[in-house]
Amino acid sequence: MSVYSLYVMLEEMFGPQGWWPAETPFEVMVGAVLTQQTRWENVERAIGCLKARGLLSPAALSNADDGTIRECIRCTGFYNQKTKRLKALAKFVVDVGEQRLYAMSGEQLRNMLLGVEGVGYETADSIVLYAAEKPVFVIDAYTRRMLSCMGVRGTYHELQRLFEANLPRDVELYKEFHALIVAFGKQWCNKKRCGECPIPSWPKPELKVEGEHP
User: Where do the HhH-GPD domain residues begin and end (predicted)?
Assistant: First the structure.
């Protein structure tokens, strides 16, 4: 099974995903921070609260009272930590400017995001792909778990390169593929359904992980 044939199979299983659900690029950024270690349903509740309070803009969020933010995002867990991270991200966007950020190359934007408190590889790449719409493949826990069950293991960048080296550099394809992996993970990657996982019946993968890029 090739990387692209995996995409085709997942698309046949789950259909179009149309991910990421957000009205603005900054809302994507907020969601990328809030989704850390929680369910998406909780993120939606938190974003709805922030939106109702008029806090879903970089300027408003960077100047918001910490207590107000915590109240809105409490349902996502780690709300004290995430409040600090959201404000740091909002201040970063205000200081640099949204339009300037989105005009950067994906690599430049990624490197700048990694300098923001609480932004790691997955969060940065989610923002680059879904908010700035630059072609970078997001590797999350579901991706690592699915590949591991297929006998494919590697570092974040090794797995990322596996996808990017074997797919066209297409933003919409990357979005959809990542979303399909998440859909698969939600359905099968839990204690109740792990034993029913279809991966053992799939064709042997022809996926080779190469060394990390520098």
Answer: 34-187
Q: What's the structural domain count of the chain?
A: 2
| Residues 188, 146 share a domain | yes
Domain range for 84: 25-131
Q: How far apart are CA 129 and CA 98, in angstroms?
A: 15
Do residue 29 and residue 127 come from a single domain?
A: yes
Q: Is residue 193 part of a domain?
A: yes
Is pLDDT of 63 > 50? yes
pTM of the model: 0.92
In a domain, 118, yes or no: yes
Residue 194 resides in a domain: yes
Do residues 114 and 87 both lie within one domain?
Answer: yes
Question: Has residue 212 got a pLDDT over 50?
Answer: no
Q: Does 108 reside within a domain?
A: yes
Of 151, 118, 121, 153, which Cα lies nearest the Cα of 139? 121
88 and 147 in one domain? Answer: no
